[in-house]
Amino acid sequence: MKNRRHQKIREIIENKNIETQFQLTDELRSHGFNVTQATISRDIKELGLIKVVAGENTFRYSFPSGVVVGNNFDRAKRMFRDNVLKVSYSENLVVIKTLPGIASGVASCVDGLGWSELIGSVAGDDTVFVLIRDKKDVQPVSERLQSLTQ
Questions:
Q1: Three-state secondary structure along the chain?
Q2: Contact 146/85 with Cβ under 8 angstroms?
Q3: Is 100 exposed, middle or buried, given 0-12, 13-18 or 19+ CB atoms closer than 10 A?
Q4: What's the angle, vertex CA 77, arms to CA 75 and CA 81, rounded to 5?
Q5: What is the pTM for the complete model shown?
Q6: Which of 66, 89, 94, 137 would bridge 117 by S-S if both were Cys, CB 3.0 to 4.6 A apart?
């Protein structure tokens, strides 16, 4: 439930100007999440949200750009263990199947790993495509990603 809530918070923050915890609480409730302000406060801290200028004398929640929050490997390991169903590969592409609605969070974790073999990722609803720089690296990378599920 927490991962789904965090995913929804990401979506809300990216698409709306949320100025207060109460606004975020209301948005989540309108999407079927029964949350309290205390839960939102913890989520904001865990997600590393910050307040940025949105206009004259107004601020909104945002994700820090270019800032690494926490340990990306530990975050990826938790995300994979809780949400990844299967990791497979072909040529220079790794395909990660996830629970519905979680693929973009998993892709973000993969990108955050900073592995030199990875060019980037593209996420749908429950599938992530990870482009690997060289074909010779696709199997070892796939195995490393698979090991995150354990």
A1: CHHHHHHHHHHHHHHCCCCCHHHHHHHHHHCCCCCCHHHHHHHHHHHCCEEEEEECCEEEEECCCCCCCCCHHHHHHHHHHHHEEEEEEECCEEEEEECCCCHHHHHHHHHHHCCCCEEEEEECCCEEEEEECCHHHHHHHHHHHHHCCC
A2: no
A3: exposed
A4: 120
A5: 0.56
A6: 137
The set of residues, in sequence order, having a beta carbon less than 8 Å from that of 41 and lying 6+ positions away, is: 21
* Amino acid (1-letter code) at residue 26: D
Angle between helices 21-30 and 2-15 (to 10 degrees): 110
How far, in Å, CA of 105 to CA of 124, rounded? 10
Q: pLDDT (tens digit, 9 = 90+) per residue, 50-109?
A: 888 777 778 888 877 544 444 577 778 888 998 999 999 999 999 999 998 888 888 888
Give the number of residues written for the chain: 150
